[in-house]
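Any chance you could type out a protein's amino acid sequence plus the matching C-alpha cells because I've never seen that pairing?

——
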Amino acid sequence: MEKMWAGRFSQALDGTADDFNASLRFDSRMYEQDIRGSMAHASMLGAQGIISTEDAALIIQTLGEILQDLKDGNLTFDEGGEDIHMFVEAELTHRIGEVGKRLHTARSRNDQVALDLRLYLRDETMGIIEQLRGLLTVLADSAERYADTIMPGYTHLQRAQPVTLGHHLMAYAMMFIRDIERMTDAVCRMNYSPLGCCALAGTTYPTDRRAVAQKLGFDGVTLNSLDGVSDRDFCLELMNAYATAMMHLSRFSEEIVLWCSWEFRFVELSDAYSTGSSIMPQKKNPDMAELIRGKTGRTYGNLMALYTTLKGLPLAYNKDMQEDKEAVFDSVDTLKMCLSVFTPMLATMKVHPERMRQAAAGGFINATDCADYLVKKGMAFRTAYKITGELVALCIREGTDLEHLPLETYREHSELFDTDLYDAIRLENCVAKRSSEGGTAPDSVRAQIAYVRQFLG
C-alpha cells in the first residue's frame, strides 16, 4: 500500500522500519472516535464552503458505512496500515475515490490523534466512573449490613481500637469517591478540542473550530495550536487517577488476602473468585485479590513511562508521542478488568462476624477507653495513660484481659475505678460512644452510608 505521504520520497520504507513505525495494531481501538471526529470535520468543511456540501455529505455517509462495517466485522484492519487515521482515509478513498481525498483538508494527523485520544479517554473514563459507582453501591449495601459488626481496628497491623466492619468499608468508599471526583475533574480539564490546530501552526482555511468542538461534545477549543497538538497532560492526569484508584483497590485486596487467611478467618471468598493448588488439596487461594494487588504496579509503570517520554520533547509533535497510547491503553484496560472482578468478588464475600468479635476481644483494644474513663473522672490523661499501661502489663503477666480483671486490682491503681468501669470498657459501648462525626459508632456509620448514597444520587 502506497503511503499517504509518499510524494516526497523516491524509495519505499524499509519493511522492518515500516513495522517499527506503524501503530495500527494498537491505535485501531480508537476507530470509532477517529470516524466521529472525521464526520464532524467533514460537516464543518462543507458548512464553511471549504469543500462542497455534496462532497461533505458523501464523505459523512461513507464514513458512517465504514464505522458500521467495522462494528459488524465486515471490515477488518489492514495489517499493512500505518495507523488508524491512514486506514480510515485509505478505506474512504477506496470507496469514493477523489472525494475521499478532500477529507484531510485543514487538518493534520497531529491534531487528529490528539482529538481521538481525548475522545477515547473521555468515553473510557466515563465507563470507569460507572464501574466505580457500582463498587460504591456494593460498599454501601455491605456497610449497612455490617454497621454493628465489631472488629479490631489496626495501626501498624497491631490491634488498636474496636471499630465496625461497616466503618472499615466506608473508609474505602471515601477513597473511591475521591477517585471519581479526580477523574471527573481531569475529564473537565481535558474536554477541549484540538482539531483545527493542524500540524502545529493552525491553518489558512476559514475553519470553524468551535462548531466541530460543539458537535463532538467539547466545552471549547484549545487556545494555542502548538500546545493543542503537543499536550498530553490529560493522559498523565488520568493515568495518575487510574493509578490512584488501583492503589486503593490494592490496599483493599491486601486486607482481603489477610482476612482470608487461617490466622484471621474474618471472611471467605466465593469459590467463583478463588483458586486451588496444584499439589495441596486443602488450599483456597485469594488469587483475584493478589492479581489486583500485583497489577497495580503496571499502572505505576505506565505513568512513569509516559512522564519519561514527555520530559525532553521540544514543541510541537514528535514521534515519541506515539508511545503514549500503549501506556494509557494498558492502564485503562487494567483498571477496568480489576474493577470487573473486584466488585462481584466483594459482593459475594462471606463475612464471619463471630471471628471478628473474637479477635476484637483480644489485644486490649479497649485500653484507650479505660484511660478515658479515668480522665472523665478528673484525672490528667497522661496519668491515666500510665495507669492503664500498667494494668495491661499486669493482664499480660496473669493471662487475662481488662474486662475480667477484678475491681479490687483496679482500685489498687486508682480509687477512681468503680463498678461502672466494666460498662465503659465493654466493646459494644466502646464502639457506640465513638459517635463523633466520621466515627465508628453505628449511627455515625449510617450517616456515612447516607452520604455515599446521596453522592450516587
User: Anything to note?
Assistant: The CA atoms of residues 175 and 224 lie 36 Å apart.
